[in-house]
Design brief:
It comes from Mucilaginibacter gossypii. Pfam families: cNMP_binding (PF00027). One of its GO terms (molecular function) is kinase activity. InterPro entries: cNMP-bd_dom (IPR000595), cNMP-bd_dom_sf (IPR018490), RmlC-like_jellyroll (IPR014710). This is cAMP-binding domain of CRP or a regulatory subunit of cAMP-dependent protein kinases. By secondary structure, the chain is of the alpha+beta class. The protein has a domain of 118 residues: Jelly Rolls. Helices cover 47% and strands 21% of the residues. The strands form two sheets. It has a four-stranded antiparallel sheet. Helix 4 crosses helix 5.
Amino acid sequence: MNTQNLPVAALIKFFEQYFPLNMAERKEVAARFTERSVKRRGFILQQGDVAKYFTFVVSGCFRQYVIDETGKEYNLQFAIENDWITDLCSFYSETASNTYVEALEPSVILQIKHEDLLYLYTHYHKFDRNFRIIVEKKYIDLQNRVMQNISVTAENRYSNFMTRYPNLAYRLPNIQIASYLGITPEFLSKVRKKIVRPA
């Protein structure tokens, strides 16, 4: 089992932020995660499909979004290198997703199926703890975002976005960031100018 290929090595390094992995655990990572390349604008999940995979981003950038009845898109989250993305509700409940997950850049990912992740939880408790931390962080991010949308100005939402994704502003078009912040691209341009050159 080649645990030395670069994508798997990146994933092992990610896991070892929390707990060191022994050789058996490293082999399970190599065996149960599948590497995949995704072209820009390629989908790894579409509305109505069941989210069968939990996805680790080795390189590239993804967005998760929903579309309302008028056709307007709303970005829910972004995922770049060393981050995870899926529709957690669909993945864990094995029900149809209401969201899309799309590559914004050519990307390389590692994916694990629901049943393989449950196997790791049962047989290697370190992974149970690792993924609990991952899901808890995703929940905290979501809660903070909801709170910001309720009570924080657009300027502060943009500042918080830059703290959360410091390099992403240079990789994404304004329309994607504006959708995430809940503002128009034109208003985002005004916010940026105001932050760069405060009145």
